[in-house]
Design a protein that fits this description.
The chain is an alpha/beta fold and 437 residues long. 38% of the residues lie in helices and 22% in strands. The protein has 16 helices and 18 strands. It is globular.
Length: 437
């Protein structure tokens, strides 16, 4: 299909950070052919037109860390410390998960992400093949990986079966244009050194992303220091896991030497400010990471610890949090926050040549932000508007891989009302079994 997204301000997010007023983007067979002035691109024959109505045309947002199916647990056992929340509420609830429940939760997450402008997400969870199926059904780009840890999983049982499950996913999805498989050990504190080494070797051999929680809490840091006399980052380095394909999620409690080590090894960071704030985990030293040239991207984490999947809100939080924490209003600029949510996210996931910016040759992952509402008027700086004024509710159209999946805030790839009704039934079971009820 020959598609034209036109009549808006185009933010390319390319190396030159080109902004094209009165611009348009032409997509052919799912691939971006050209971005330029509307008057020029509209002169060519087009099969389908998406009218931006004078709004902002930009790359789709990239969520580099979430647990999509935790939409099932949104609002469950809030306002608790991370370890208590995990061990007393989340892990018990997850022990009753099934593939069907995970699929429904993932579809609900996809609907939420599409409606708020996310076109690509990186997921770590259980029954992850069902998440891949849900993403495919929704028409979303996804990097998916089964969580690996030392104790038996509700999905695969023993760890050996977990690696077999991961390999089966790699084989099943290796030719898919939208789904990429990653290796995803949970964290240093619940993964033995041998597990981490094997996962790192497996990811390297298959040229796939390696995704892990690292340095999320002070408790984690203390555990690893006590057991190995190393920081979590140093521990990962010892295991051969500190590599360019690593996405280290959170990185709140990292030292200056950790940051140096991460920069030297080309590690990518998924920054999840809202989740870190809600769980009182701390504030990641993002400005320092950026200064050292580390690719820092944004993630929402799961809906049980955020409690939404709106990357516009995450951009706003990231920019403001680091200003107040550093007492420097320039610490994370609006433009930097948008980069973190787009091209940095794509690069972190190994998809920098595929998505994250509007450039000829990349896939057509494009969103339109409606700027006609009072809270977005007048507009002097589009980056400022996106970060400090807009929310996901302002996204009016979403195109993924050249296919419109949402226009006028109506998703065309799935029945959102039916999905919500299914999740409602599962939520009743979850509420009944939670120890707080």
């Amino acid at each position: 299909m020959n598609l034209l997204v036109t009549n808006g301000t185009v933010l390319t997010m390319d190396e030159e950070m080109r902004v094209i007023p009165d611009g348009a983007v032409r997509v052919e067979n799912g691939c971006i052919r050209k971005a330029g002035k509307s008057v020029e691109l509209e002169a060519e024959e087009t099969d389908r037109v998406v009218d931006a109505g004078g709004g902002i045309i930009m790359p789709g947002l990239v969520n580099t860390h979430t647990h999509a199916s935790m939409t099932l647990f949104r609002g469950l056992a809030d306002d608790l410390p991370l370890m208590e929340w995990l061990r007393e509420h989340i892990f018990p609830a997850e022990s009753n998960l099934t593939g069907e429940k995970v699929h429904a939760g993932a579809l609900l997450a996809c609907a939420e992400m599409i409606l708020s402008g996310t076109t690509c997400f990186c997921d770590m969870y259980l029954f992850e093949d069902e998440v891949a199926k849900a993403a495919k059904q929704a028409g979303m780009r996804a990097v998916v990986g089964e969580v690996l840890y030392d104790f038996p999983s509700p999905n695969y049982g023993s760890l050996e079966n977990g690696f077999a499950y991961a390999q089966a996913m790699i084989d099943k999805w290796k030719e898919d244009p939208l789904v990429t498989v990653a290796l995803e050990p949970h964290s240093p504190y619940i993964c033995a050194p041998e597990l981490l080494e094997r996962a790192a070797d497996m990811a390297a051999a298959a040229h796939l992303p390696l995704v892990i929680h690292a340095g999320e809490t002070r408790n984690e840091d203390e555990q690893i220091q006590s057991k190995y006399n190393r920081t979590p980052i140093e521990f990962l380095a010892d295991r051969g896991a500190l590599t360019e394909n690593l996405v280290a999620c959170h990185c709140v409690h990292v030292s200056e030497s950790d940051i140096e080590l991460m920069a030297e090894n080309g590690v990518n960071v998924a920054h999840c400010p809202e989740s870190n704030m809600k769980l009182a985990s701390g504030v990641a030293p993002v400005p320092r990471m950026l200064e050292k040239g580390i690719c820092v991207a944004l993630g929402t984490d799961g809906c049980a610890s955020n409690n939404d999947l709106d990357l516009f809100l995450e951009m706003d939080t990231a920019a403001k949090l680091h200003k107040v924490f550093s007492k420097d209003p320039s610490a994370v600029s609006a433009e930097t926050a948008v980069r973190m949510a787009t091209i940095n996210g794509a690069r972190a996931l190994g998809l920098g040549s595929v998505t994250g910016s509007i450039e000829a040759g990349k896939r057509g992952d494009i969103i339109v932000v409606d700027t006609s509402a009072p809270h977005l008027f007048p507009m002097y700086n589009p980056y400022s508007h996106l970060v400090y004024s807009a929310s996901g509710h302002d996204v009016s159209a979403v195109v993924i891989d050249g296919t419109p999946v949402m226009e006028n805030r109506r998703i065309s790839t799935m029945d959102t009302a039916k999905i919500m009704e299914t999740v409602k039934g599962y939520a009743a079971q979850i509420r009944k079994n939670d120890p707080s009820n």
